[in-house]
Amino acid sequence: MRSKAKYGSKIILDICDNHFIFDETNLEAVKKSFQLKAAIAQVDHLIVSSNYLRDRVTEECGANIEITIIGDLVEEPNIGYWYSSFLNPIASLQYFKLKYWLQNHTPSKKTRLVWFGNHGGNYSEAGMVDLLKIKDLLHDLHKKFPLSLTVVSNSRKKYDQLVSNWYIPTFYTPWNRNNFSRIIKLHSTTVIPITPNKFTLSKTENRVTTALAHGLQVVADEIPSYTKFSQYTYLNQWQDGLVNCFGERGRSLREFDFSHHNQAIAFKWFDLFDSL
C-alpha cells in the first residue's frame, strides 16, 4: 500500500479460498479477517477463482469492488529424469513402496483409486473426512471390483483415524512434490467427495485439472468451479461413474488440453493488466 501511495501503483489482490470463514474464538484469525477486508477495500482489483467466491466477497465486503474471475493454472506433470532417484531418495522410496503395494493388491490399474489433498482444518468440515461419504459405496463396489484407495496427504494421523481400518485395501503416502506426478499416475481414477459448505463451495478447480492433466479420470461431487469440466468428468455420478471407470466405457480425456487451458488463463491476466 505504501507503493500505491508513493508511486501511484496499481495493486491486484488474488484470493483463491474463502478466508472469511474462521474460528471466531481465535483472536488471531479474527484479526487476519479484518486485515483481509481492509486490504480488499484498498486494492484496485480483486481476482477470485469462481462466481461463488465472488459472491462471498461482495457479501462480506460490499458490491463496489472491481472483481475478475480467473481460474487456476494447471501444473504440468513432473515425472522427473532418470537420475531423479539419486537426487530425491526419500521420494523415490515412497514411490516404489506404493508401486510394489499396488502390484500386490490391485494388479489392474483400472480399479486403483487415489484421493489427494490437504487433510483438513479446524475452520470447516473439509479434507480427508470427506472420504467417509463414499466409504460404504466403495465397500459395496469392492465385492465386484478388486479396488484399492491411495491417500496422498499431509496427515498420517488423520488417515489412521479415518481410513486405515476400511474393508478395502488402502495405502497412505505423504504428499511430496518430488514424486507426486509419478505417484498419481500409478492410478486410473481420482475421487473427490466434498461436503458442501461456504468453504468447500469456494474452492478452485485445481484438483480436477491436476488429475485430468495427469491422464486420470475424475469422479467428484460438483462445486461451482468444477461445473465447466462436466464433459471430462463424472460429477455427482458416484455409482455409475466409478463403474464406468472400472470398465471400458470411461469418458475420453483427450479433449482436455491443459496447455490450452493455461493459455486461456494467461490471456485473461494479460487483458486485466492492459485494462489497468
TrEMBL record:
It comes from the Bacteria. This is Uncharacterized protein. The lineage of its organism: Bacteria, Pseudomonadati, Pseudomonadota, Betaproteobacteria, Burkholderiales.
